[in-house]
Specification:
single chain, 263 residues, mainly beta, Immunoglobulin-like, five-stranded mixed beta sheet, 3 helices, 38% strand, globular
C-alpha cells in the first residue's frame, strides 16, 4: 500500500511540474558547441583547405551528430546543400567543401538519432567563408563605397615598395558581433609598411561613415529578422594587390546569448 501511495504522489508531482513548467520540462536540450578547425561562429577556409569538425555531445547523452550546410542566403527551412551524419558521442571528423562553389555558408549541427532526426536544439551556428574574401564575389547585397580619403593621409609622401617584402594591410577588429542598430569603429592596420591611403567598401546592409582620422564607423540596420553576416573591405590605393577585410555578425540575440555563442 505504501508503494502505491508513493507512486501516486510521484505521478501527482509530475503532473504539477508539467502544468507549472511545460516548456522547461519538455524542452529539448541544446547541442553543445561544435568547432571547425578549432574555431566557432566565424570560420574562413581557403579553397580545398582541410576542415576538421570537433564535437562532444556526451554531456546531453547524444550518440549521433547531424550536420547540414546552407548557402548564406538560404533559410533553414530549405533543403541543405550538403548533409553529414556522424556516429559517436564525441569525435573529430573531416568535412569537404570541394564540391561547393566559393561562397559564404551557414553550418547547422545538432544531436540526432541514428537516422539524423533531431533530438536536441542546434548548436550555435557557424558561418563559413569558403574561399576567403572570394567567397563574397557571389554575394550580391547592396554595395556602398567610400571614395573620400581620410584627412590624416593628405600629407603622406612616403612610398612603400611591396616587392619581396612581407607587407600587408588589415582591418581592426577583424570580426565583431553586434545587435541591430549597433555601431562599431574600424581602423586600418599596416604590416611592415608605412600607412597609406585606402578605399573602404561595405558589402551588405547598414551604413559606413568616416570617423576621426583614418577610422570608419559601421552602423547596423535598426531592424532585422534573425542573424545576418556583412563584410567591410579595404584596398590600398597605391598597391591594389593589398587588401583586408572584417566580418560583422548582426544578431537579435541577447547579450547573454552572444557571450555564450548561442545565436
Amino acid at each position: 500500500m505504501s508503494m502505491m501511495r508513493a507512486m501516486k504522489r510521484i505521478g501527482l508531482l509530475l503532473t504539477v511540474l508539467l502544468f507549472l513548467f511545460p516548456e522547461g520540462v519538455l524542452a529539448q536540450p541544446k547541442t553543445p558547441l561544435v568547432l571547425i578547425n578549432r574555431k566557432f561562429r566565424l570560420v574562413e577556409l581557403a579553397r580545398s583547405q582541410r576542415a576538421t569538425l570537433t564535437y562532444d555531445i556526451s554531456s546531453i547523452g547524444g550518440q549521433h551528430l547531424a550536420v547540414s550546410v546552407y548557402r548564406h542566403d538560404q533559410t533553414l527551412n530549405e533543403e541543405p546543400l550538403k548533409k553529414w551524419l556522424f556516429h559517436g558521442s564525441r569525435g573529430s571528423e573531416r568535412l569537404s567543401f570541394d564540391d561547393l562553389p566559393l561562397a559564404v555558408y551557414t553550418l547547422v549541427a545538432y544531436a540526432s538519432d541514428e537516422n539524423g532526426s533531431a533530438v536536441a536544439q542546434a548548436a550555435p551556428l557557424i558561418h563559413v567563408e569558403y574561399g576567403g574574401w572570394r567567397a563574397w564575389e557571389a554575394f550580391k547585397p547592396p554595395v556602398e563605397t567610400v571614395e573620400e580619403q581620410p584627412e590624416a593621409f593628405k600629407d603622406v609622401s612616403v612610398a612603400t615598395s611591396t616587392r619581396n617584402v612581407d607587407v600587408g594591410i588589415a582591418i581592426s577588429p577583424q570580426a565583431v558581433v553586434i545587435k541591430p542598430g549597433g555601431t562599431v569603429e574600424f581602423k586600418p592596420a599596416f604590416r611592415n609598411m608605412e600607412p597609406e591611403p585606402v578605399t573602404w567598401k561595405l558589402v551588405g546592409d547598414g551604413k559606413l561613415t568616416k570617423g576621426e582620422g583614418d577610422r570608419y564607423i559601421y552602423t547596423a540596420p535598426k531592424t532585422q529578422l534573425g542573424t545576418k553576416l556583412f563584410r567591410i573591405e579595404i584596398q590600398s590605393s597605391a598597391h591594389p594587390d593589398l587588401s583586408g577585410a572584417a566580418t560583422v555578425l548582426v544578431t537579435n540575440a541577447s547579450q547573454d546569448q552572444i557571450e555564450r555563442g548561442q545565436f
